[in-house]
Amino acid sequence: MSRHDKDESKESLAKGLPVISFSVGDSAEFLYGDAWDAKKAEKAILDSGDVLIFGGKSRLIFHGVASIIPNTAPTFLTNETAVRPGRLNLTFRQL
Q1: For residue 45, which phi and psi values (nearest 5 degrees)?
Q2: Which of 8, 15, 25, 85 is most buried when burial is the number of CB atoms within 10 A of its CB?
Q3: Which residues, in sequence order, are bridge partners of residue 20?
């Protein structure tokens, strides 16, 4: 269980209530897996606009962002808006 999962109620975790994560800006290398070992984890790239949802049996899997991939945000975000370069992640979970 990661640090932020420890902030959730035991009831929320027991029910396997989902975590919903929205990615905006630069892409990120996301790690996940059964073992709490980054070297054994699966990898996925989360691009701007991606939504990640995990719950149920997969709710307490090892997960986290290994790195941010600079300068990968859609150009309209930095050229046509006031969004600064980088990555913004909005994560929703029931505590």
Answers
A1: -95, 125
A2: 25
A3: 53, 92
Lowest mean pLDDT among 4-8, 15-19, 47-51, 71-75: 4-8
Say which DSSP state 61 is in. S
For residue 54, list its beta bridge partners. Answer: 19
User: How far from 15 is each of 2, 32, 35, 48, CA to CA, in Å?
Assistant: 17, 20, 21, 29
Residue 4 among known ligand-binding residues? no
Residue 1 pLDDT exceeds 50: no
The answer, yes or no, to whether residue 4 has pLDDT greater than 50, is: yes
Q: Retrieve residue 16's tokens.
A: 């396997």
Contact 5, 54 (CB under 8 A): no
The answer for 80, left when phi > 0, alpha when psi is -120 to 50, beta otherwise, is alpha
